[in-house]
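Loading example: each entry is read as two labelled lines plus one structure line.
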Amino acid sequence: MTIPILNASGCLDALTAPDVARSLDAFVTKTVTPLPREGNAPPRFAEVDGGMLNSIGLQNPGIDAWCDEALPSLRALGVPLWVSAGGFSATDYARVCERLDGLADVVAIELNLSCPNVDEAPETASELVAAARAVTGKALYAKLSPATPDIAEAARAVADAGADGLSLVNTIRGLALDPMTLRPSLGRGAGGYSGPALRPIALACVHACASAVDLPIVGMGGVCTGKDAVDLVAAGAAAIALGTVLFRDPCAPARVRAELGAEVRARGARSAAELRGAATPLATRAGLSSCQATPKVLQIGQNVTA
Amino acid sequence: MRRELLGVVGTEPIGAYTLIRVGRGSLEPGTPGQFFMLEAPGRLLPRPMSLCLPPDRELAFLVDPVGPGTRALCELRAGDAIHVLGPLGNGFDLSVDRPLLVAGGIGIAPLPYLSQVLGGPPALLGFRSEHHAEAACLLPGAEVAIDPRLVTELLPDDPGDILACGPEPMLDAVRSLAPRAQLAWEAPMACGYGACYGCVIEIDGHYERLCVAGPVLREAA
């Protein structure tokens, strides 16, 4: 039993880098919304201490054009496909999920409930999950913000609303100022902070949620090495996603997988999954489903399960 | 798309800029106008640089030290090693009858390689100071304008096939004078291969990723 490695949504285009997508256990698309979006005005990213800020603004062709133009090419890649769904209301999320529900190639839907770069839907995360749940039988992963005041409570709420898993975490809002003008470096002002500085924050969120709910967790946030991946697994993640590291190193999936294997061997474990939850006392491992009677299982694709 | 750890062969100041030479490894030099992502020591993100010259078994990049990443690159020394990804993007269309190379400032970067491939066509260069203009030594025979004179003032009435690289106002001016010009645009890039959507420029009313649509564009942007 291995730990699947995915990309974080918005950190890879499988169509411009098919070999990178094929090096993953599943490819997660950039967020798709009901209508096309041009995204935010540049500058859209800034390198800052400990990571980077981005403010892309969910640029995407809209669900109809995505189905017509992107899906056939993505299908041809032969990589299990997760689609990130977004919107600005429960109706938006339902519309995207309803369309995806009929697509056999889509293994799972990740609900982007926490983009820091666009206006938020008025509904709560659990209401958005419930709206999606009502229209699809696909596996639904709720992507939560690390800025959620009580993320364990939010995890319980989306679990109750029908989520099949959690994606933890999204970027956290940050601001950088141009050193000359002292105006925001990004066109929209603030942006989503990602990279190494997000790692301990993601670790805390995964740790808190793994103890709170019985759902598989895709852990992400600043993972650069196999050791970083082991930490997230120990905190309770069933899979790992790579984000910002892909920008500097498109070969990161193979490298992190190899490093993860070496870390596991160095610890005398037979598989990475054996280390899962090592950070959490056995008595409180609500989300570590391997010992549960009716576990929620990570569905990564046809050939790989964990 | 290949990424390799390449040894730094040497660096040399050329006016205000630095020419960084790295061993080529198994990377191809690509088409003039294509670019590479260079690991900037101590920085999270690599920096996009078009290939300046392809010496034997080497790749050479001209870098303007304008920020922490480019300064770190300029401080590299022989014996250091950096990861390099490329070549990336779309270079110049070389099937031109009467090429005229035009560059402003660090926009000279891709022109020495381009000139080599095209057999040394005429070139016009603009710089903001005498010190910056020392880089004109990379294109022997080029006509040089120094601020306040603009490179566009050197354009002949019938410029032929312009291949240009430089700051946005310069490229806008070239395009208004020569709508069919091939223009190599510049934008900050986090990844260089279409993953981040950070380098968009407006083309026909839509944001397009410069790293995959360009950086060389014709009749657009």
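Chain A has one domain: 5-37+57-177+194-291.
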